[in-house]
Amino acid sequence: MSLILTPQTAEAPAPELAPRERETLRHIAAGRTYLQTARHMGLSKHTVDAYLRRIRAKLDITTTAELTRLAISLGL
Known about the structure:
Layout: H1 19-29, H2 34-41, H3 45-59, H4 64-73
Helix pairs in contact: 1-2, 1-3, 1-4, 2-3
């Protein structure tokens, strides 16, 4: 089940993402690569990958497009 937050589904619970997960999501949604995101955040690309895997697991998201839609719905 995918969680897509739109104005029509405002009653859906807000995803519980850690601040660094939200920051990572913002960078990826902006079109940055894992390596670019890692460099900007001062992390390894493996840590960025781990953050994104956690986001996907928490929210049952499988594609980058879904991640991007989530970021937009969260105002990131």
